[in-house]
Design goal:
With about 110 residues, the chain is mainly alpha-helical. It has helices at about 20-25, 30-110. The protein is about 80% helix and about 0% strand.
């Protein structure tokens, strides 16, 4: 109740404004209006459910893409590590080959007169 001892006002959609509206509340017009409000609320709920279903489908699609990207990333990491080791081994072979050629050249110069 309010400070003046009266009950609080009803919401606008439930507040009758005159005798004709009070009488309409007891007739089919009031029921039709209530049905209309229920239909509007049901349509809003159906729209919300449809939007939630679309959102769920989009989230599932995004999760599938994320999983695919993760597996692709792991595969890329394995291949790049393997390629790195191959490149490093190729550098070691080149250094070893050049070193062997230099040693062979030095031995050729030193033992050429013998």
């Amino acid at each position: 109740s309010t400070p003046h001892g009266r009950p609080p006002p009803a919401p606008p959609f439930a507040r009758p404004c005159g005798r004709a509206q009070i009488m309409a509340g007891y007739s089919g017009v009031g029921i039709a209006q209530a049905r209309l409000h229920c239909d509007v609320a049901l349509n809003v709920m159906r729209d919300n459910i449809a939007m939630m279903a679309e959102r769920d489908a989009k989230l599932n699609d995004l999760q599938d893409k994320s999983t695919a990207f993760q597996s692709t990333s792991q595969l890329f990491h394995r291949h790049s590590t393997s390629l790195s080791w191959k490149a490093r081994w190729q550098q070691y072979r080149l250094i070893t080959f050049v070193s062997a050629l230099l040693v062979w050249g030095v031995f050729l110069i030193v033992f050429r007169h013998h």
